[in-house]
Amino acid sequence: MRLSLPSAILLFALSGAPALSAQAASTSTCKVETADIGTIVGRGPSNEAAFEDAATQCFERRRQLHKARYNRESDTDTGELYIDVCVNVKCS
């Protein structure tokens, strides 16, 4: 069976549309509950991306809390401690 170019394009577009919309609609979440900075919910297209989002939010919240408490930015050692804590969060 031979298709004309417009028919082939339409067929290709229609066959790919449901897969793309289903893929775009699915997102993963990474929920982390902490005592000091509250609950963090990371979101992304994959589990890894959701974890990365949660870890980034964790770091930023800790950095902001430090600045609010001490009225200054955290030093390098404290920032590295925050990174260590945040890359080891456990998603639920």
Characterize the structure shown.
By secondary structure, the protein is of the alpha+beta class. It has a domain at 26-87. Helix content is 62%, strand content 13%. It has helices spanning 5-25, 47-70, 76-87, and strands at residues 28-33, 39-44. It has a two-stranded antiparallel sheet. A hairpin with a 5-residue loop joins strand 1 (28-33) and strand 2 (39-44). Helix 2 runs antiparallel to helix 3 (76-87). It is elongated and about 40 Å long.
Short description:
The chain is an alpha+beta fold and 92 residues long. It has 3 helices and 2 strands.
Number of β-strand runs = 2
The average pLDDT value, as a whole number, equals: 81
Tell me roughly what share of residues is in helical segments. Answer: 55-70%
Widest sheet: strand ordering = 1-2
Shape: elongated
Number of helices: 3
Largest sheet: 2 strands, antiparallel
Secondary-structure content class:
alpha+beta
Q: What ranges have pLDDT less than 50 throughout 5 or more consecutive residues?
A: 1-24
* Separation, N- and C-terminal Cα atoms: 52 Å
| Fraction of residues in β-strands | 5-15%
List the secondary-structure elements in sequence, H or E: HEEHH
Computed Rg: 22 Å
